[in-house]
Design goal:
With 260 residues, this protein is of the alpha+beta class. It has 7 helices and 9 strands; from the N terminus they run H-H-H-H-H-H-E-E-E-E-E-E-E-E-E-H.
């Protein structure tokens, strides 16, 4: 097949039919740039377009393949059947190729998921945390009433289900300092971005220990604000106090002066 000869034939037949490149493109559901490309010999029509292109130009499929009109009658029906078969085989190859590509992508995704699980179980995403943070204690009305130490000692998960597990002992809340009491803090809690919560537990049971569940805490864990069940507020930054007094939990990612 000679692309140049076929292109010249397409251009001549189109003009003979008084069709613009755009007219022909619309009949074939392709762009006029594709038609221009064929006519310049820069490309050849897809095999699936040979039959409709031949019909639109009043040519035979063999004319297009040879790049010139034939005077003698040719077995056009046989040629068209062969072209239809070739087009069908091309589509099937394309489907198989895409199937292989999608299968490979699925296999890679599965491998990545398995690798993530292995690394997660191996603790690759855990970071140790050991801090003693001084926080201000506020009355239920929001007035400063002293200071308290908060001992934070455990591990923070930095990928996946981002969370902290370990001691979060608030000196002014004696129950949180008892032996074998630990806390679980989650960022994006309850599958909601920007929510953080804290739950205390002893082996075999969760318990409130006088601390409300929702809190504000940065991922560095050096800046936080929470409320005790008696209304007392414990916060490292005064900016948390109006949020905790509002009675409404705001879905935010707090960034205050103590965060690094």
């Amino acid at each position: 097949m000679d692309k140049t000869k076929t292109g010249e034939l397409i251009a001549a037949a189109r003009k003979e039919k008084s069709l613009t490149q755009k007219d022909l493109a619309q009949r074939l559901h392709v762009s006029d740039r594709a038609v221009s490309k064929w006519e310049r010999g820069a490309g050849f029509p897809d095999v699936s377009l040979l039959e409709p292109l031949a019909d639109a130009l009043g040519l035979t499929v063999l004319d297009l393949l040879r790049g010139e009109e034939q005077e003698a009658a040719e077995p056009e029906l046989t040629v068209r059947r062969a072209v239809a078969l070739l087009a069908r085989q091309t589509r099937e190859r394309t489907r198989r190729r895409w199937g292989q590509i999608l299968g490979s992508l699925a296999a890679l995704a599965l491998a990545g998921f398995v690798l993530f699980g292995i690394l997660d179980r191996a603790g690759a995403f855990l970071r140790p945390v050991s801090l003693t943070v001084t926080a201000v204690v506020y009355t239920p009305e929001g007035d400063p009433a002293g200071e308290t130490d908060v001992i934070i000692d455990g591990t923070r998960k930095i990928l996946g289900d981002r969370s902290f597990v370990g001691r979060f002992a608030i000196s002014c809340a004696e129950a949180t300092c008892r032996e074998r009491v630990e806390a679980c803090i989650r960022w994006d809690a309850m599958k909601t971005e920007g929510w953080q919560d804290i739950q205390y537990y002893r082996p075999g049971e969760f318990c409130s220990l006088g601390v409300e569940r929702m809190l504000y805490i940065t991922e560095s864990m050096q800046s936080f604000g929470l409320k005790l069940e008696d209304g007392t507020i414990v916060a490292t930054d005064a900016a948390y106090v109006p949020l905790l007094l509002s009675g409404y939990y705001y879905s935010i990612r707090p960034v205050f002066s103590n965060q690094f």
